[in-house]
Amino acid sequence: MTRLQTLQDFYQKHVQPYYRDAHKSQEEHKPIAWVASTFPIEILQAMDITPIWPENYASICAARQISVQLAEIAENQGYSRDLCSYARTVIGAILKEDTQHLPEGGLPKPDFLVASTAACDTHLKWFQILSHHLKRPLFLLDSPYNTMGADADHLEAGLIEQYVLQLLGLIKFLEEQTETTLDRSKLRESLALSDNTSNLWLEIQGYRKNSPSPMGARDAFSAIFFMLSIPATKVAVNFYQALRDEVRNLVGKGLGKIENERYRLIWDNLPMWFNLRFFNYLNSLGAVTVAETFSHVWTGSLDPSEPLESLAKKYLPNFANCSLDRRVNLILQLAEDYQANAIILPTNWGCRMMSIGETVVKEAIFKKLGIPSLILDVDSSDWRNYDEYQVKTKLETYLKTLK
Amino acid sequence: MKILESFGRILYERHVIAEKWKAQHRPVIGWNSTYTPEEIILAADALPIRILGSLRPTTLADACLPRNACSFVRSTLDMALRGDYAYLDGLVTSNSCDNFNKTYDLWKSYAKIPYFHFINTPHTNTSVAHSFFCREIRRLKESLEDAFRTTIPSKAINRAIQRCNENRVLLKKVYDLRRKSTPAINGVEALEIVLSSMLTSKEQHSTLLRQLLKEIENRPNPPKPGIRLLITGSVMDATDLISITEAVGGIVVADDLCTGTRYFWNLVSASKDPIDAISKRYLDKIPSPSRYHHRNGRFAHIENMIRRYDVEAVINFLLKFCDTHMFDAPLLTEELRSQGIPVLNLEWEHTRSGIAPLKTRIEAFIETIKGVP
Ligand code: SF4
Ligand code: SF4
Question: What is the ipTM of this complex?
Answer without folding.
Answer: 0.96
